[in-house]
């Protein structure tokens, strides 16, 4: 059974919100056992819960805002565009990845692959 | 060797332009030998040149416009958002998929997977 569109949309919305200002524990709750994370595409795929936790732990405590722009859902999978802004001092670092996710029947993430590169990143002053 | 960012961007741009108003032959030229197409996600994967040609041949002759909105490229792969509008009489059918592609070292498409569903489609009058 594939996850419903509604369940996937709920998980994706929660993911974007929690990447910005959630705890690592809250983010990990969105992932199924055995999930994998490749962020960005081309980096080593994280295949253990410890490796995934290590990745998201680096975000905890940062001053961030995120916004979900576009979500496409089909057959228990999703691709979505979102913008993540990290504020460090007076500088705002913006990345806007397209993430591709698969889900189990409960709407938990079974894989995440993030399409972005340094060429897409934007660095601006806080007033920008 | 992975395709350069520039080569991938060129192929993606050509793809979106040709989906709208190219010939099937022109579109097929963008695909590597052995390429696969899954459009939409969840449909049977087309694994032969004949099956891929059959898919794109249905677009030939339609009155269509397309616009590439967002492209993310990493490690010889791309995810991109575009809008395709098909005009049939006074009615405009709009879909805005997120396509995920892999490329060979020459920038030819080795796989295409299109994320969209009927829930994303929009039907409007020509004046809309």
Describe, in plain words, how this protein is organized in 3D.
Chains A, B: It holds the Pfam family SnoaL_2. The structure is a homodimer of 128-residue chains. The first copy, chain A, is an alpha+beta fold. Chain A has one domain: Nuclear Transport Factor 2, Chain: A, CATH 3.10.450.50. The first copy, chain A, is 24% helix and 42% strand. In chain A, strand 5 and strand 6 (109-115) form a beta hairpin. Chain A starts with a helix and ends with a strand. Chains A and B meet through strand 2 and strand 3 of A and strand 2 and strand 3 of B.
Topology:
Two copies of one chain form a homodimer.
Chain A: H1 5-21, H2 24-28, E1 31-38, H3 49-57, E2 63-74, E3 77-88, E4 91-95, E5 98-103, E6 109-115, E7 122-125
Parallel strand pairs in A: 1-6
Antiparallel strand pairs in A: 2-3, 3-4, 3-5, 4-7, 5-6
